[in-house]
Amino acid sequence: MYAAVVRSFDQPPTYDVFPEPAGPDAVETVVAAGLHPRVRSAANGTHYTSEGGLPMVPGIDGVARTADGELLYFVADDNAVGTMAERAAVDRRRAVVLPAGTDPVAVAAGMNPAMSSWIALRRRANFHGGSVLVLGATGNAGQLAVQIAEHLGAAKVIGAGRDSERLKLLTTLGADEAVTLDAVAETAADVDVVLDYLWGEPTEQAMSAILHARSDRAQPLTWIQIGSMAARELTLPSYLLRAAALTIIGSGQGSVSGRDILGELPELAALITSGRLAINPRAVPLADVQQAWTAQAAPGERVVLVP
After folding, report:
1. Are 75 and 94 in contact (CB under 8 A)?
2. DSSP state, residue 288
3. From 94, 176, 215, 224, which residue has the greatest number of CB atoms within 10 Å?
């Protein structure tokens, strides 16, 4: 079969022949596979789950069509051949049947980035209302996080990012306020949950500013580390943990069990297929994977490879 094949962590994948998956699971026809940041980090060897084995086919999820015509959203097994290929092994325990008429490109584009905030709120924060700040809200996952927080009943949603022009879009997506990073203390001092896609220096500054501005420092604040678009590390002054009721947790592969993640798929898939979330996919032929990999995506856009 043809697939996107990574032969060096220093080079983008190329369109090449690769052995078809083998094993106990059914091998189905891939319809669409999203080019997510998680996929990129696995393909360049920097993701914390990367074991360094090459050659490899990237891709962690996708939409497949069975021989019977069913359309499935599926998450690939950890050790399986990736989903950016003409065919992929599909474990039905890790798949959701999609309704007829579903746009497979939109599902492939939306499920992974939407899952980041959905799992964080539902499984890590045990969220039942309250106010939410999204740091890094102008990116694809951040825009979906704003919408998902509103969908899950947040009393107030604040989106924060660097680009003032992109921030203007957030209020049309469900944000009550959209602010630049240097203004978070003025608008989000008393939030209950922070969904952090940035980390690094922006988080250092925002965390300190928010905790100093809180009207009641004993009010619990759950800070959920999801992404590291700005940096992978930060400096955390010890006094911040003593001076406020701050809880810092992470949300991602390992901090949430695979069973719990899979348990959330049906409801999230139903939300995405309903069309209630604004998703901005761009379909690209799998044969053009090398160009798609190196091209600059538009703000909020998610590239989807279509075999």
Report:
1. yes
2. G
3. 224
Tens of pLDDT, residue by residue, the chain (307 residues): 999 999 998 899 999 999 999 878 889 999 999 999 889 988 887 766 666 678 999 999 999 999 999 999 999 987 889 999 999 999 999 999 999 889 999 999 999 999 999 999 999 999 989 999 999 999 889 999 999 999 999 999 999 999 888 899 999 999 999 999 999 999 999 999 999 999 999 999 999 999 999 999 999 999 999 999 999 999 999 999 999 999 999 998 889 998 899 899 999 999 999 999 999 899 999 999 999 999 877 777 899 999 9
In the chain, DSSP assigns E strands to 2-5, 14-17, 26-34, 61-65, 71-75, 87-90, 95-98, 131-135, 156-161, 177-180, 193-196, 221-225, 246-250, 281-285, 302-306
Cα of first residue to Cα of last residue in the chain, in angstroms, is 10
Amino acid, single-letter form, for residue 44: N
Measured between alpha carbons, how far is 302 from 143 in angstroms, rounded to an integer? 12
Contact indicator for 237, 208 with CB cutoff of 8 Å: yes
Cβ 138 vs Cβ 300: under 8 Å: yes
CB distance 173 to 141 below 8 Å? no
Q: What is the pTM of this model?
A: 0.90
Which burial class, exposed, middle or buried, applies to 26 when counting CB atoms under 10 A from its CB (0-12, 13-18, 19+)?
A: middle
* CA distances for 179 relative to 86, 138, 205, 215, angstroms: 43, 11, 15, 20
